[in-house]
Amino acid sequence: MAGKRKTNPAGSTNSYRSDVLHVLGTLKVATADQIQRISAPHLTFRHADKPTPSKRKQARTASHTGALSDMRKHGLSENGGSTDTGDTLRNLTSKGLEAASWELRRPATEMGSTARGAGSSGASHPMAVNETVIALLRPKPDLAKLADDPPHIQAAAQAAVDCDVPVRCQ
Question: What's the mean pLDDT when you consider all of the chain?
Fold first, then answer.
């Protein structure tokens, strides 16, 4: 396997690993889909041309899933069960919380504890909290990152940027 990365075999980048540390350091447990929607909302529109919802989700979460895989290899994150819909729940280890405290510029003493065991019952409450956080944040896509994409993808992203009240825009 010439050319294969030894440190991060899933090919993750510092920015995607940083996204994961920011989200999991704050929310404690989340799916790759939730991490992507909070930290890289432009990917939601970039892969709108995939044939099925499953393929779209797989394409838009691939980068964060790779980051989670590499972080798991380094002992920073772990799979913590699954949701009722079959999505894998992810959380940070103690070592991951320490890295997240550095990334979030917060003292480790303020980071709380790991979310071990949250996924044993599907984590319905944390997932509802995460969806509420996403709704309140209403992360907007970075249109510059979609400059080379087809016009229909740019139009969908522009509509999301222009929308002030998501309920009216859906």
Answer: 85
